[in-house]
Amino acid sequence: MPDNNTPLLQGTLDMLILKTVALEPMHAHGIGQRIDQISQGVFQVNPGSLFPAFKRLERAGWLDSEWRATENNRRGKYYILTASGRKQLRSETRDWKTQSVAIARILQA
Amino acid sequence: MKVFRHLSAGLKELVRRDKTESELREELNAYVQNAADAKIDAGATPEEALRSARLELGGMETVKHEVRAVGWEFALEVFVQDIRYGVRMLRKSPLFTAVAVMAIAIGIGANTAIFSLVDAILLRPLPYHDPQRLIVVGTQQRGISGMDLMGPADFLAWRDHQQSFEQVAVLDLAGRSFALSGMGAPERIPGVGVSANFFSIFGVAPLKGREFQPGEDRPGLPGVVVISERFWRDHLGSDPKVLNRTLSLDGKLRTIVGVMPAGFRFPSSRPVDLWAIRTLNPPTARPPYGLVAIGRLKPGINVSKAVAELNNIAAQVTAQYPSSPDLVGVMMPMKEWMVSDVSTALLVLLGAIALVLLIAVVNVANLLLARATVRQREVAVRMALGASRRRVVRQLLTESAVLSLLGGVIGLLLAYIAVRAFLAFGPGHMPRLDEVGINPVVLLFTFVVCVGSGILFGLAPALETSRPSLSDPLKDTNRSSSSASAHRTHRALLVFEVGLALILMIGSGLLVRSFVRLSDVNPGIQTDHVITAAISLPNKYAGPAQITQFWQQFLEKVEALPGVKAAGITMSLPPNLLAISNPFTVEGQGYDRNRQLQLAEEMTVSPGYFRSLGIPLMKGRFFSPSEKVEGDKDPMIVIINETMAKQYFRGKDPIGARIQTGDPDPSAPWETIVGVVGDVKYSGLDSAPSPTLYVPYNENGWVMWSREMYLVIRGSGDAPEIVPAIRTQLASMDSTLPIAQVRTMDQLLDESLVQQRFRTWLVSGFAVLALLLSAIGIYALISYSVSQRTREIGLRIALGAQRSDVLGMVLREGLQLLALGLLLGLVGALSATRILQSLLYSTSATDAMTFVATSLTLISVALLACYIPARRATKVDPMVHCDLSRFRGLV
C-alpha cells in the first residue's frame, strides 16, 4: 500500500460510489479504478470494502445491477444508479459541501 | 417501507442462498479478470497480472464473508449456528447437561409457580370494570387503626347523603350461609346478603338471567337470589331453564333470577354460591356492626376527599346515638382489602424461591467454570483460527442460554404440575385463587428469568474460557495452568452461594420456630374426643319459646345417646370461629364516650358447653339447665374468663359484680357475674388473651341470637362415629334442618394453622434445597481443587507430610470459604429477615437461637461436604500420582 493512501471517512465511500456510477453504469473493478484515478491515488478502495458497500447500497435501493459484456468482451456485473439513489447522492453531496466548508472555516480560524 | 425492503431482501437471500453465493463468486472472479486485463494493458505479463490481481483482491473468502455480514440475516445465521454448536457440545457431556438442566428446571419451575400466584393475586388488576375505582368502606373508632365493619345506621346515612361515589352497595358478612332444603338432604350453602345494586358496582354481566334490579331490596318484596355458576352446575345440573326456579333458603322461598359466571366471586377469600337480597330496615340502634360497604368512586374524586365526607356523615350519626362510640370512616382500595392478608407471605415466598434459583445459578456457573478449564483448548483453537473474543463469548453465552431454556421448558412443566397441586391441596382460603394459572404474563416472566439466569451463569465461565492466556493452552498438557483466575471466580461464587443459603435457612428456621410455638399454644380446651357441627334454625322458629324449646329437646336427646358424655351449643368455636365482639362497661367505671372501647368476645352457650370442651371453672359456678333466665324480670347472668377477671377486677372477687354490654349506656340492663372460667382462644391461636363473656343461649335479649349455633359433643370413643346418630335425632325433630361443617376439634385446630403450616413447609423445603445445592457446590469445588493438587499433595506426602496435615490443609481451604460465606449470610439475614416479622408468632426476626442453630447446621453439612474430598486427598499415593523419578537427583 502506498503511503499517500488516506483512509476514507466512514460513510464517504458510499457517496463516492454513487457519484461514480452517476456518470454511467460500471462494474466493480471499474468503479475502484475510477475512484483511484480521479482522486489521483489518494483513495485506493480495496475490494474488501467495495463489495460490502455494493450490497449495502443495493439493499438501500440506491443501486441496481445487471450482468453485461465488458469492453474486453468478458461478463461483468454493472451497477446502475436508481432514481432514489440519485436523490440520495444529491442530498449527500449537499450535506458534504456544507460540512466541508464549515470544517475548512474552523481549520482556518 | 425501508424496513420491509430490508426484511424481504434478507429473506430472499436466506431462501436463495446458493444463487447469491454463486453470483458473488462470479462477480469476484470477474473482478480479478478485469483487474488482470487492466494490468496487461499497462504492460504486465498475463501471469504477473493475474497474480497481482488476486493479491489485490485479498482472501476471496474474507471478502465473501464481509459481504455476507452486511444483511441482518447474517446475525440470524450466526445465531442458529451457535445454537447448533451449543447443542452439539451439550450432547457431548450428557451428565453435566442433565445436572445443570435439572438444577435450572427446579429453580425456574418453582419460581414460575410462585410467580403465577403473585401475578394472579397481587399484580393483576381485579377482573372487574375499571377496578381501581372500587373501594371498600368501613368504620372504626377514632384513634384506632384498621378497618371495622359498618352498622346499618351509618351505611344508610352515608348511602343517602354521599356525593363521592357513583354507587354504593352493601354486603352482610354476619350471615355466611343459607340452609337449603327441599332438594335431597338439607345442607348449608355459602352465601351473602347484598343490596340490590351490588352487582352493577362490579360491572360484570351475569352468565344467565339478570342482576338484581334497583329497588328490589325494599322491605316486603318477594325474595330473589342470584346463584354462582358452580352452584348451578353442582346442584341444579346446569339446568337450562334455571331462571324462575325457586330455592328454599333458611325456610323461605327465593326465586333464582340470575347465574353469575365462574370468574365472579366476591367476597373472594371464601366460597360464595348464593347472593340473596339483604333488606335494610330503618335502624333503631347503631350496632350491630356486620356490614361491609363497597362503592365505585366517581372519576376524578380521590379517596381522602371521600373519607372526609364519610367522617362528616358519621359524626351526624354519632350525634343521633349519643351512647355510641365516636366512629370515623375508613376506605381501602378493593384489591388491597382482598389481598392484604396474604401479600407479605406471598412476597416472602417469592423472595425465598428467587434465592433458591440464584443458588442453583451459582452452582451451574461453577460447573461451567470447571468445564471452562477443559474447554480452553477447544476455544484456543477457534481463536487461533481467527475467531474474536467477542465471537467466542457470544457462542459460549448462546450455549448457556440453550442450557437455561432447556431448563426453563422442563421448569414450566414442573410449574404447571406444582400450580395444579397447589390449587388441589394447598390452603384453600386465599383470595383470587380461581385466577391463578400459567398465562402469557407468567410465560414472559419465565422466559426473562430463563435468559437472565443463562447469562448470569454463563458470563463468568465464558469470560474465563476465552481469556487470552500468556502460556499457549494449545501446547499445555497440564490443564491447570491458566485456572488460577478461574479458581478465584469459583471460590467467590461459592462464598456467595453459602451466604445465600444461610439467609434462606435462617428465614425458614424462624418460620419453623414460630410455627412450633404456635402449635404449642394451649387453646384452653381439651381437644380429644370432641366433634363439632353447625346447625342453624330458619325463620319459622320465630320466637324465643320455639328456639329454646328446640335446643332444649335436641340437647336432651343427644345427651341420651350412647357414647355421648356431654353436649352443648355455642355461637363461637375455638380456635378461630368467633362470631361477635361486644363493648362492655364494668359497674363503677363511669361512661366516658372518648375512652377507648373495651371489647369482649361474647357468645351465647348452653350449660353443657363448658363440660363438652373441658373448659375449667376457676371460681363461682357454671350455668345450670334449670336456671330461670328467659323472662323479662329474670336476672341476667354472665360467666367471664380469667383474663377479664385479671384485667378488670384486680384482686377483687368478680363473683356477684355487675357489668353492662353494648355501647356505654347508663340505662342498659345489668348482668351479674356468676362464674370465672379458663381462657379459650376464639380469635386464632396467635391472638393475645382477651376478655370473654359467656351468656346463657336462652337468656332474654340473647335468645334471638341463638339460631346459628355450633353443636359441641364430647364422646367417650371415636367422636365421628356419633355423627349418624345425631343426624337421625335432628331429622326426627325437623327433617329440613341441615347439619354442616362436621369437624373434630383437632381438625379445627389443624385447619386454623393451614396457611402458616403451608408457608413454613414451603420455605423449609426451599431452605433444604438451598442447603443441598450449596453442599453439592462445596463438594464439587473441594473435589476439583483436590484433583488439581494431586501431584502437589503426593509430593508433600513423599516429603514426609502426615495424612492429618494433608487433611487439615484441604479442610482449611473449605473452612476459609465457609467462614466468609457465613459472615456474608449473617449480615444479609439480619436485614432480610426483618420483612418476616409480621409472619412470626412470639419469635423475634433476629432470634439468636435460630441464627446460631442454622449456622451450625450449615457448618456441619458443609464440613461433611469438604471432608469427603479431603479424605480422598489423604489417600494420594505418591508412587502413583507423581513421577518421583524427576526428583531422583534430589532424593
Key features of this structure:
heterodimer; A: 109 residues; alpha+beta; Arc Repressor Mutant, subunit A; 3-stranded antiparallel beta sheet; B: 891 residues; 5 domains; 6-stranded mixed barrel; 22 strands; elongated
Task: Give your account of this protein's structure.
The complex is a heterodimer of chains A (109) and B (891). Chain A has 109 residues and is an alpha+beta fold. Chain A has a single domain (12-108), classed as Winged helix-like DNA-binding domain superfamily/Winged helix DNA-binding domain (Arc Repressor Mutant, subunit A, Orthogonal Bundle), CATH 1.10.10. Helices cover 58% and strands 15% of the residues of chain A. Chain A has 4 helices and 3 strands; from the N terminus they run H-E-H-H-E-E-H. Chain A has helices spanning 12-23, 28-38, 47-60, 83-108; strands at 26-27, 63-69, 75-81. Chain A has a 3-stranded antiparallel β-sheet. In chain A, a hairpin with a 5-residue loop joins strand 2 and strand 3 (75-81). Chain A is globular, with a radius of gyration of 15 Å. Chain A starts with 11 loop residues before the first helix and ends with a helix. In chain A, 28% of the residues are buried. Chain B has 5 domains: 2-70, no CATH class; 73-127 and 341-475, no CATH class; 143-325, no CATH class; 482-521 and 771-891, no CATH class; 539-735, no CATH class. The longest helix of chain B has 51 residues, at 334-384. In chain B, the strands form 3 sheets. A 6-stranded mixed barrel of chain B has the order 3-4-9-6-8-7. By secondary structure, chain B is an alpha+beta fold. In chain B, 51% of the residues lie in helices and 15% in strands. In chain B, helix 7 crosses helix 10 (303-320) and helix 14 (483-519) crosses helix 22. Chains A and B meet through helix 2, helix 3 and strand 3 of A and helix 1, helix 2 and helix 4 of B.
Largest sheet of chain A: 3 strands, antiparallel
What characterizes the major β-sheet of chain B? 6 strands, mixed, barrel
Helix content of chain A: 55-70%
N- to C-terminal distance of chain A: 34 Å
